[in-house]
Q: What sequence folds into this?
């Protein structure tokens, strides 16, 4: 082994895994995608997903997930974060069948979750930004979070999720973020997951 190779081995042999946060608006499919990644590579799950917005109200994680891509392998700690919104209206939860009391409690938990997501964003080493490809991506919260990630110099993978839905419009996401590479994927079915894993290995390796 040459001098440079030995030096590299010393410097990086005990390097901690990158901590990668899944971010995005509520119900973009972050938890489903986090579960897909963790199940495919570590045979674990991260959390429970739901059709009701703001199901995830605390950051939840799977540590030491080794992901193999086309150009190499990377070990990451995957952190699924609560969805971030610019406002939380408890009335929206009533539309999902929650009682008034449950809707109020969900709204309070959602607000706490947004605060936790912003705190965790200061600690992660990279971001997987998850968008629901069935929804217009031109929203203030997306510009805000992507801007914060850019300001912190965080490596980022932008995902257009839910491509298994008939009304998914990946081109709308591509057009809205034409300066970024967009990875289409279905966290639910695993469609195009190999492309996502290659992007993760390349960006966070």
A:
């Amino acid at each position: 082994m040459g001098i440079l190779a030995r030096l590299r081995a010393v410097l990086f042999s005990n390097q901690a895994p990158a901590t990668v946060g899944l971010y995005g608006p509520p119900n973009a499919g972050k938890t489903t995608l986090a579960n897909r990644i963790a199940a495919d590579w570590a045979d674990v799950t991260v959390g429970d997903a739901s059709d009701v917005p703001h199901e995830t109200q605390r950051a939840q994680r799977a540590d030491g997930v080794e992901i193999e891509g086309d150009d190499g392998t990377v070990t990451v700690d995957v952190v699924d974060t609560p969805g971030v919104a610019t406002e939380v209206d408890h009335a929206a939860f009533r539309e999902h069948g929650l009682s008034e009391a449950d809707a109020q409690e969900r709204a309070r938990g959602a607000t706490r979750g947004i605060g936790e997501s912003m705190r965790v964003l200061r600690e992660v080493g990279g971001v997987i930004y998850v968008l629901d490809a069935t929804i217009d991506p031109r929203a203030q919260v997306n510009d805000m979070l992507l801007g914060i990630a850019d300001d912190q110099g965080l490596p980022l993978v932008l995902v257009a999720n839910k491509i298994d839905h008939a009304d998914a419009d990946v081109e709308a996401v591509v057009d809205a973020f034409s300066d970024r590479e967009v990875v289409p994927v279905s966290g639910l079915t695993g469609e195009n997951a190999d492309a996502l894993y290659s992007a993760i290995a390349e960006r966070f390796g």
About this structure: DSSP finds seven helices and six strands in the chain. The domain at 20-204 is CATH 3.40.50.300 (Rossmann fold). The first strand starts at residue 18 and ends at 23. The chain has one domain: 20-204.
